[in-house]
Amino acid sequence: MEPRQRALAQAFESHFNAKPSFLVRAPGRVNLIGEHTDYNEGYVLPMAIDRAVRIALRPRLDRRMIVHSLEYNQTVEFQLDDLQKNKGWAEYVKGAAWAMQQAGWTLSGWDGVMTGDIPRGAGLSSSSAVTVAAILAFAAASDREPDPVRAALLGHQAEDGWVGVHGGIMDQMVSLLARAGHALFLDCRTLEYQHIPLPEGMVVAVLDTSTRRGLVDSAYNERRRQCDAAAKALGVRALRDVDEAGFRSRADRLDEATRRRARHVITENGRVLQAVEAMRGGDAAALGLLLDASHASLRDDFEVSSAALNAVVEIARRQPGCHGARLTGAGFAGCAVALVERERGPEFTAAVAKEYEQAAGMKPAISLTEAAAGAGIARLTG
Questions:
Q1: How far is the C-alpha of 127 from the C-alpha of 166, rounded, in Å?
Q2: How many CB atoms lie within 10 A of CB 322?
Q3: What is the per-residue pLDDT for 120?
Q4: What does the angle CA 215 – CA 220 – CA 223 come to, to the nearest 5 degrees?
Q5: Mean pLDDT, 10 residues at a time, over the chain (382 residues)?
Q6: Burial of 348 by CB count in 10 Å (0-12 exposed, 13-18 middle, 19+ buried)?
Q7: What is the rounded (10 degree) CA torsion for 288, 289, 295, 297?
Q8: What fold is seen in the domain 3-194+372-379?
Q9: Domain boundaries along the sequence of the chain
Q10: Quick one: which H or E segment has residue 312?
Q11: Rounded to the nearest 5 degrees, what angle is found at the Cα of 85, between the Cα atoms of 84 and 90?
């Protein structure tokens, strides 16, 4: 048992005066490229990171839930037969229960202690990691092995229908299906996926600007409405169904703002396909240029960047060994991602941290990550 697992198991014993039966883990993610394409039924290329949400749990014989969060130092109790909406981190656990019961699962309650080291609100999918971890915890407590794709769909339903975050399917899919050393090339319409290896000698730098934003009832949902309006005006089911030539011939049907939103999504889908080919060929330079182009499109056409994100991206690009950088996640605040030569990683981290603090007046949190494995359940013995 690794140190983090041991510490979590000990926290469970301290809180419940008993040993846990299971440990579940669900990683966060960075999206290498393919931003705001998932809910437009397009292509994405995320990877899991080495930060995760973890739950130690013990099944109960009734349908009562007791979950304690170490980060919030808060215990929440509820009944699976009487789910009531509220606010806060526990809504993602309730949402998982609601979605699974809607799908016909007969759930058992459990006692659990939850912890996580994914920065909240940074665009690294901390919320979806909670949802996925909760789904795996319910599956473990109910003695069932969930299919990863079906579990991802349940996670998406939980966040959309219970929490009210109208995102796409990417976050749940990569958390469940990621493979170490690889990104997940995902078709968000068909849910077909492939594991694509990262270029040799490269690591991914996560550049946390130390700025934060909300998600529910925010500009994220406004962008989604604009994309839906663009698809309707262009006469297609989703912007996935428009290529760049078709868009140019019909762009005059859209007002200026909607036209720019659509242009980002359509060109971003093309960049994802090009990125997959670059990675298959081990071409880090070509992949980096696509990251740069993605950031420009997110900044200028989709308008979801910020002064802090632009600053950290520009600083990262200046460093030796950096092949490209872009904001990652919904935008407006949070994190950027950079493709960096592994041997240059330490000096890159130090230089970006120093220059960003001088430029923005805030300390960034910069980490180098390899592509991590997806979520899992560990049964404990003894």
A1: 13
A2: 22
A3: 83
A4: 170
A5: 91 97 97 95 96 98 97 97 95 98 97 94 87 98 94 97 88 97 97 97 96 70 93 98 96 96 98 98 98 98 96 98 95 94 98 98 95 97 68
A6: buried
A7: -150
A8: Ribosomal Protein S5; domain 2 (3.30.230)
A9: 3-194+372-379, 197-369
A10: helix 307-318
A11: 100
**68, burial (CB in 10 Å: exposed 0-12, middle 13-18, buried 19+):** buried
Residue type, 372: A
Q: Which two tokens stand for residue 107?
A: 């759930």
- Would you state the pLDDT for residue 123? 77
Instruction: Say what the pTM is.
Output: 0.93
Is 171 noted as a catalytic residue in this protein?
A: yes
Question: How far apart are the C-alpha atoms of 10 and 96, rounded to whole Å?
Answer: 25
pLDDT of residue 124: 85
> 189: helix, coil or strand?
coil
Catalytic-role residue among 38, 81, 160, 171: 171
Residue 156, both tokens? 């998406």
- Determine the topology of domain 197-369 in CATH: Alpha-Beta Plaits (3.30.70)
Contacts 24+ apart (CB under 8 A), 241-246: 241/41, 242/266, 243/270, 244/270
Exposure string (b/e) for 225-251, b if CB count within 10 Å is 16 or more? ebbebbbebbeeebbbbbeeeebeebb
